[in-house]
Amino acid sequence: AEEAAEQLRLYRRDPDGWRGCRSTGEVAVSWRPSAEFAGNLYKGEGVLPASPQNVWECIKPVAGGLRTKWDQNVKDFEVIEAISDTVSICRTTTPSACMRIISPREFVDVVVMKQYEDGTMLSAATNVEHPLCPPQPNFVRGFNYPCGCFCIPVPG
């Protein structure tokens, strides 16, 4: 979990190579080739007219959290094992897509939540196997490389 958090911090600090691919009035999405796997990294950025704490409540990875209510790509989120107050093993499921051509997915990750001195909040995750969460029928087991969300306070 700590390695995933550090990898996300490195991505955030390194502005090189990101190319814009989509943009609306609220969100800009960029990509760049990954150095860890054969594929691309993606990041979405936006400024929300809300306090960092309210935004964090919407995105933080906790059982019973708000993410399943607003994110159509997250069907369920459960904590398999709480390692500490900030580190847990979690299972996330996604619904089928494209008229059920794409099967529902499940992801098992070790997740860490951090808060930094400047008020930035981070959730970082990466794939893990756990004996309490074997692959479930009717789901394709997905694999996450280091991924997560930053909630960064902006002046005003």
Automatic annotation (TrEMBL):
PROSITE patterns: START. Residues 1-156 form the START domain. Gene3D superfamilies: 3.30.530.20. InterPro entries: StARD5/6, START-like_dom_sf, START_lipid-bd_dom. It holds the Pfam family START. GO terms for biological process: cholesterol import. This is STAR5 protein. Coiled coil: none annotated. Keywords: Lipid transport, Lipid-binding, Transport. GO terms for molecular function: cholesterol binding; cholesterol transfer activity. May be involved in the intracellular transport of sterols or other lipids. May bind cholesterol or other sterols. It comes from the Eukaryota.
